[in-house]
Amino acid sequence: MNHRVLVIEHEAEAGLGYFEDWLAGAGVTCDVVRPYLGEAVPEAAGDGLIVLGGAASAWDDEGFPWQPATRDLLRASVEASVPTLGVCLGAQLMTLACGGTVERGAPGLEVGLRPVTPLDAAARDPLFGVLPPVAWAVQYHGDAMTVPPPGAVPLATGDPYPAQGYRLGDRAWAVQFHPEATPEIFTSWLANPDPLTAAGYDPAALDAEVRGAAAGLAATWRPFAEAFAAVVTRAEPLSTPPAPLSINGDRAITARNH
């Protein structure tokens, strides 16, 4: 059976990266929709859904007019138990869509190679259970998921941003970091160094650190991607089904991400 995952890409510089080959190798075909090029966001996903990152804030519907449709798609997919993964901006859109809160992050920009620590619940999770005790990941965000949606299970934390990952229901995940990002993608995010230097970062040092970690990033995040593919391709429930989620639409939005 050919399993197909719908992918929402918010900008050319924040594509599937590593995930394209890793998911294909695990038997999953990705159908990429690019609303920034005028492509319409579908009302329903196929066998799975991935919503990628981008420089937008999750509440900036005027600047990025496809975001309401993306939140609707995320909400519908979570409610229908479609395997769903939100990455950075995608995670923040899922958070808003399902009743949580996203705000400007008080600590400011979190950029570069950063440690993510799985929580106790991660050991029993299909995706986070494959991670080491400390998982190094690429980061680039300044907004934060400050209140998770009702019913979310926190799965990973970090410093200075504690909300790094959660599961909603048994088939939807949100991650603040970038498991898909290749060193080449990260380099493209450094094209405008001004906000980084203003925040006290050395862009060249950030770039060198991520490039030096390429092998470790692949070793850590390929099993994570393959675990998501296994959820997509598995027909039977992962566990005892949770109570049906009741999601009441976008919460009041109080709030540079990739």
UniProtKB/TrEMBL annotation:
Q: Which residues form the Glutamine amidotransferase domain?
A: 27-186
The answer to keyword Nucleus applying to this record is no
Cross-referenced Pfam families: GATase
Query: What are the protein's UniProt keywords?
Result: Glutamine amidotransferase
Q: Which domain of life is it from?
A: Bacteria
Under the heading PANTHER family, the entry gives:
GLUTAMINE AMIDOTRANSFERASE YLR126C-RELATED
**Name of this protein:** Type 1 glutamine amidotransferase
Q: Which organism is it from?
A: Sphaerisporangium aureirubrum
Q: What is the lineage of its organism?
A: Bacteria, Bacillati, Actinomycetota, Actinomycetes, Streptosporangiales
